[in-house]
């Protein structure tokens, strides 16, 4: 049984990324995705990271909620632009 608390910082650790709050904020700011690009299709993931993210989403695993939160954060600019364009 995995007792790791499911949080964004731990997701970043699982992905082998800097999990400090400033690093997470910077990653999200500098890795925004187009609205039509799936999180797992982002070009910056390596194969292991992509596989982990994909498996968690497909399995609707404990991590899926945090992976979804990451996806929403990485699509924030595109969603904002789309909603501003609709106004």
Strand content: under 5%
Q: How many helical elements?
A: 5
Main beta sheet, described? Answer: none
- Provide the succession of SSEs: HHHHH
Count the beta strands.
0
What is the overall shape? globular
Helix content: 55-70%
Structural class: mainly alpha
**Poorly predicted ranges:** none
N-to-C terminal Cα separation, in Å? 48 Å
- Radius of gyration (CA) equals 13 Å
The pLDDT mean sits at: 90
Commentary on this structure:
This protein is mainly α. 59% of the residues lie in helices and 0% in strands. It has helices at 8-14, 21-30, 47-58, 64-74, 76-86. Helix 3 crosses helix 4 (64-74). The chain is globular. The mean pLDDT is 90.
Using brief descriptors, characterize the structure shown.
globular, 5 helices, mainly alpha
Task: Reconstruct the topology from this structure.
Blueprint: H1 8-14, H2 21-30, H3 47-58, H4 64-74, H5 76-86
In short:
This protein is an all-alpha fold and about 90 residues long. It has helices spanning about 10-15, 20-30, 45-60, 65-75, 75-85.
